[in-house]
Amino acid sequence: MSGIELTLRHPYAGILDASAFLPERLFSLSTAAIEQIEVDVGGQKEALGHFFSVSAIESDRLVIQGPVMNSCRWGAEMSCGRLIVECDVGDEVGLGLRGGTIEIRGNVGSHLGCGMRHGSITVSGNAGDYVGAPSLGQRRGMRGGIITIEGNVGQRAGDCMRRGTIIVHGDAGDYLAARMIAGTIAVCGRVGKQAGALMRRGTVWAPQLQPASIVSSFSSGQRVQIPHLALWYRWLASIDTRFSHWAHAETYAHRWLGDAAVQGLGEFLSPIAA
């Protein structure tokens, strides 16, 4: 079986725990075996085939069709393959992701990519709070990989982020990069209040950044030239062609350093013309 498409047969009551829907697991099974996999819906165990029809497709991906908005944990602990969900979904998408690619063609809830280590997540809509933050009981957020969000994100994106990259094409809510340890965040839209609170290291790049958005314990903004920005722009364009026009941009930016409250070495960069 080269690829699999699961199509919702009928609406369901409660929250669907989608952690069983992993490409590396389903691709090794027959259609009949996939239909017998137990899934948790509203706290009750049911066979997958009761809710979804299973069909083979000419691709290398697992595709989910149907209104599965009341669902969570898509791609949790996934290690390889490609998962596509053609719908809005709930919380904890890509929880602890270890590899592979997740595409959500809609909006997602909170805790997107929490604790992820490798791989990539793309969301065509908006995302809730705590993107790339720690998973429950953990102290560190995402440790690698790339999260791309076409729309807006809620509060505390990049909270305790350890490594990796978050790209937001829309706006970011309050407390962006709070307690950030390392990594990179790019926000093309506006940035909310209290950005960088208790930030230790890492970089936030935001063309529309307003100084009032950053916590007061950062340094005053300085106009500087940063030569390595040219390399970073080219890398960014290689993973998202919409950044191609930055590949030849000047490397001047306003730069704020902090958070001084934790002897932080983090930085906010807002590009400017030479």
Summarize the structure.
By secondary structure, the protein is mainly β.
List keywords for this structure.
274 residues, 13-stranded mixed beta sheet, 4 helices
Description:
The chain is mainly beta. The chain has a domain at 183-274. The protein contains 4 helices and 17 strands. Strands 5-1-6-8-9-10-11-12-13-14-17-16-15 form a 13-stranded mixed beta sheet. A 4-stranded mixed beta sheet has the order 4-3-2-7. Strand 16 and strand 17 (266-271) form a beta hairpin. The longest helix has 11 residues, at 229-239. The protein is elongated, with a radius of gyration of 20 Å. The model has no long low-confidence stretch (mean pLDDT 96).
Q: What percentage of amino acids are in beta strands?
A: 25-35%
Give me the secondary-structure category.
Answer: mainly beta
Q: Specify the number of helices.
A: 4
Question: What share of residues is helical?
Answer: under 10%
Name the shape in a single word: elongated
Order of helices and strands: EEHHEEHEEEEEEEEEEEHEE
Question: What's the structural blueprint in terms of helices and strands?
Answer:
Layout: E1 3-8, E2 16-17, H1 23-26, H2 31-35, E3 38-41, E4 44-47, H3 48-51, E5 52-57, E6 62-65, E7 71-72, E8 82-85, E9 101-104, E10 120-123, E11 143-149, E12 163-168, E13 184-187, E14 203-205, E15 222-225, H4 229-239, E16 252-258, E17 266-271
Parallel strand pairs: 1-6, 2-7, 6-8, 8-9, 9-10, 10-11, 11-12, 12-13, 13-14, 14-17
Antiparallel strand pairs: 1-5, 2-3, 3-4, 15-16, 16-17
